[in-house]
Sequence to fold (264 residues):
Amino acid sequence: MTLPENYTIEFDVIPVPDAKNGNSTAFTFSIISTTKPKALNYGLARPGEAGIRFSFQYTNSYFAYYNDNTPPLDGRENAPRLQANQQYRISIWVQKERMRLYVDQEKLFDSPRAMKKNYKFNMIRFDDGTPLVGNVRIATGLPDMRSKLLTEGKLVSYGIFFDVNKDLVKPESYPSLKQIAAVLAENSTVRINVVGHTDADGDDRANLDLSKRRALAVKDALVRDYQIDAARIETDGKGESAPVAPNDSMTNKALNRRVEFIKL
Fold:
């Protein structure tokens, strides 16, 4: 599998003390370009032919290496140490060469040249330590979000998640919300209307109310967590009244469950 230009990687991790290494909770995570994707021990000293490695330990550090005489990108970030036996959500957002990494909702790393073009990144890997890792999610990023919202005037998101019949925004929605908030923060005069949509399961009136509450929950998250001015955001809900596909299969129903951001 080759990763696309724009994507997100997310996972939950619990650092566990490793008795063999003095109870260290350190572990590493790498995104690699390699001609040997099945050789799991290849590139331990350096991340394959090219790549970036994050080392989560007492002081979080990173190392990016390319085999074309590009100077390595190497450094440390002053981020909180990950505590043993505590769960964290790691979110990585790649847009072409730019990479951002978040621990929970705090940005740890942001580099415009971490993922050098002309390389095909085709491996992710955990090394060192004994962390507990779960809930791994890799998703294609929203294409050209800035253009979709600012130029085309409408952005449709399938990256904002809710439990069935609930209006609480789930934590795995934050990579998408971060992207939307970034566009709004960089374009301070833009106003939007957040519109919720549901599939056709259940009562019409209940679906309409649910879609309105979900849109309001998205607005609240943008205001509360990303300091977007509430006056710039209106909300609405269409329930099941504006489907983009027939409600005749699980796949089509998923297409209808969406949040739209419309430029005002």
